[in-house]
Amino acid sequence: MKFIWGLITFSSFSPEIWLKASFYYRIVGLFRNWRQSSFLLRWGKTIGALLISLILMFSPFVTTGVIGIWLISIAMYWIILIVSEREQPVFNSIHLLVFLYWVISAIAVIFSPVRDAAFSGFIKLTLYLIFFACTSHILRSPILTNWLILSTLGSGLLVGIYGVRQRLFGVEQLATWNDPTAYFSNSIRVYSYLGNPNLLSAYILPSIALSMAAFFVWQKTLPKLLALTILLINTFCLYFTGSRSGWIALIICLVIFSLLLFTWFKDELPLFWRQWLLPITFGTLISFIFVLIASNDILQSRIMSIFIGRADSSNNFRINVWTSVVNMIKDYPFLGIGPGNDAFSKIYPLYMSPKYSALSAYSVFLETAVEMGLVGLSIFIWLIFTIINQGIQKINKLKNDKNSHGIWIIAAVAAIVGLLMQGLFDTVWYRPQVNTLWWFLVALIASQHKSKEKINIHS
Question: Which residues form the O-antigen ligase-related domain (predicted)?
Fold first, then answer.
C-alpha cells in the first residue's frame, strides 16, 4: 500500500532524467552570459519578488484588469529569468502535475463547443500557472520568502481591519446574501475591499494560517505581537463575513495546523504534554465553539441553515445550480466545455433552471469537472494529493534539519486544505485575489524541493 501511495504521489520522483530530455531544460540558461553583464539581472530574483509582492499586497484594492496586467508582466519576466538562469531549474512532482493539468486544459480548449470563450479562460489559467512557476522559483530564497509572506500578511491586516470596522460601524449590504425569510436576514455581513463576504473569507484564510506560523517563526516580542494581532483581527473579520463555508474552512485549517504543529514540537515536549496537549487543545476549541453557538441566537440560526436543505434560499440556489452543472458534465464528460467563466456563461444558460442564473458552478470540484471533464478533475485531485503529500514530506525533512521554514509549510498545507473544504461549496477561489494566493501557497510547498544531485545546465 505504501509503495502504491508513493507511486501515486511521486514520493521518489527525480526530475533529472526528464529535464535533460526536455525542451524546457534546453532553454534554461540559454542567455546566461547576458545575465552576467546585465546590472538589473544581477538582482533578478529580487525584482521578481517585487513584482509578485505587488499582486500579494494590492490585489484586494485594484481591479481585476490591473491584476491581469501584473500577471502578464510576471509571465514576461519569468521567461527572462529562465533563459538567463545559472542555477538548476526548479522542478518536482508538483510542477509535473501542474504542467499536465495545463496540457489537459489546452486539449479541452480544442474540443470545446465554445472555443473562443474557452481560449480566453485558457490564457487566464496559463497566467496563473506561470505565476506559480515564477513564485516557486523566487521562494527558494529564505529572505525573499519572508518578504513575500510579510507582504501577504500586511495586505491581509489592512483588509481585516476594514472588515472589522464595517461590522462595528455598519455597512450597506450590496446584495441579498442572507435568506430574507430567515431569523438572521438583517444581520450584517462584512466584505471589506473584496465586495463579497464569501470572497473575503477565502481571501483572509491564508493570512490566518500564515499569521499563526509567524507567531512561532518570528523570534522577537514585537514581531510575535504583530503576528498575534493579525491573527485576531483576521479571525474576527472572517467570522463577521457570515460565510458558512468560510467558517468550516477556518475550523479545518485550525485542526490541520494544530496537528502538524504538534508533530513539529512533539519531541521537545514533556511526556504529559505529548499525551494531553491535543485533547486539551481540541477540547477547548470544541467547548468554545459550543458556548459561542449556544449564546448567540443569530449564529444558531445561521449554523442550522446548513442542515435544512432547500428550506434555505442560499442552499436551494446552490442545489439548483449543482443539478444543472451535473447535467452539463453528463453531456461533456471527458474534456468538459473548456476552461474559464466565459465558457461557463455561454453553456450554462442552456441547462439552468428558470431564475437560477450563475457565473460558476459554486463548487471548485464541479467547476473543474465541467470545464475540463472527468479527465481534468482526476488530474486536479491527483495534484491535490501530491501537494499535501509533498508538504508533509518537506515538513518532516525541515524538522530534522531544524529549519523553521517548515512552519511556513505547515501553514501552507493547513490553508490549502481549508480552501479546498470551502471550495466544496463555492468557487470564489477562481477570483484573482484568491487564485493568486492559492498558487502562492502551492509554490511555498513546491519551492522547498532540492534534488539530491545538482544539474549543471548545458553540461
Answer: 231-381
Instruction: Write out the DSSP string of 85-96.
Output: --SPPP--HHHH
Count CA within 13 A, CB hemisphere, residue 441.
28
Q: How many residues does the chain have?
A: 459
The predicted model scores a pTM of: 0.90
How many Å apart are CA 9 and CA 274, to the nearest integer?
30
Q: How would residue 459 be classed by pLDDT, with cut points 50, 70 and 90? A: very low
> In this structure, are residues 401 and 122 in contact, taking their beta carbons and an 8 Å threshold?
no
- Local structure of residue 352 (DSSP, 8 states): P
C-alpha cell at 404: 523553521
Q: Is the separation of the CB atoms in 367 and 407 below 8 Å?
A: no
Cα atoms found within 13 Å of the Cα of residue 419, Cβ hemisphere only: 32
- Distance separating alpha carbons of residues 302 and 183, to the nearest angstrom: 8
Q: Which residues contact 197 (CB under 8 A, 6 or more apart)?
A: 177, 189, 190, 191, 241, 242, 243, 246
Q: Are 164 and 235 in contact (CB under 8 A)?
A: no
